Amino acid sequence: MNSLLKSLFVSGAVASSILTSPVEALSDRGIFHPFRDSFFTGQSLERMISNHGLSMYEKEGKLVIEAPVPGIDESNIEITLEKGILTINGIRKRDESKETKYYYHSSNQFTYSLALPEMVDESNPEATLNNGLMQITFDMKEESQPRKIEIR
Questions:
Q1: pLDDT digit string (tens) for 111-146?
Q2: What is the pTM (predicted TM-score) of this model?
Q3: Residues with Cβ < 8 Å from 79, sequence gap 6 or more?
Q4: From 103's CA, which of 9, 52, 94, 142 has a CA 20 to 30 Å away?
């Protein structure tokens, strides 16, 4: 098990999709689970509160988080990090220069929030925006190695 999944598992932040095989996921379709599903929508509570579109993976000793932000200018995106919670806020504003009178959506706003694993070094994140994909990269802390304690 790689170190990122191990960290997520230990911290209790593992989504069931990480631990469930694709076969198990397919077999669960259409079955109501009273302790997991909403009574009103029949949809998994996990799915209702999930951050659609976010991807998180470990690559070359770094944690990479990707968020789709198509059509949103860099100046309209705010990224904050507070107490281990990464939040990405953005807004797509209507182009006021157009002379169109009727809009179905004049602006779109979004917020992604994600709890970072404990093994992430929060001191020096880097963010890039390329072709509508926001990529935020964190260094990983060195894994603590077991050490022998001498008895005196």
A1: 888 888 888 999 999 999 999 899 999 999 887 778
A2: 0.58
A3: 86, 87, 88, 89, 127, 134, 136
A4: 52
